[in-house]
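Predicting holo structure, zinc ion bound.
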Amino acid sequence: MLNLLNFKPKCPYIMKKLIVSFAIITALIVGCKSNTKSNDAKTLTVALEPKSNSTVAGTATFTEKNGKVTFVAKVTGLEPGVHAIHIHEKADCTAADGSSAGGHWNPTFKKHGKWGAAEYHKGDIGNFTADAKGNGTITLTTDEWCVGCGDATKDVLGKGLIVHQGTDDFTTQPTGNAGGRVACAGIIK
Ligand SMILES: [Cu+2]
Ligand SMILES: [Zn+2]
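Done. Tokens:
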């Protein structure tokens, strides 16, 4: 910086060039810094679409930060009461009954169960309650998932999110006997 200030070129064109170069380098440094910042938190939002002739809709957000993923689903149009929500194998919601999303996402070959129990699928998020208006919310934070890391035992990208008509009993294999599929979202960018 001092050198730049003390430098007195004979030709003003050189000075101009130096200033322009300095500006470009500054812009690059600022640009790199803000890129690093945006890598700290990765957020993916997906939309739930109605299935099985339901009117269920909503959004789900996966936010990855410091090695943990926070999942928030906001669901509308449900029958009041308790509903299961799982991550299923495929991001394919094309079937009218949501069956195209496949079974529960289970990359570690465990039994179906309650999240945090001795055995459970990586997709076994659990149950949540819809209020009298049919609105429900569920949150889960875990270091057992990632968003786009490529580790097959952790990566939710390319999977499907399914909301069920009924309640997960955490016992029945391999589905939890949660009933029909009333909403589906592909977990894709
Ligand atoms: Cu399910
Ligand atoms: Zn399961």
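The helical segments are 2-6, 12-40.
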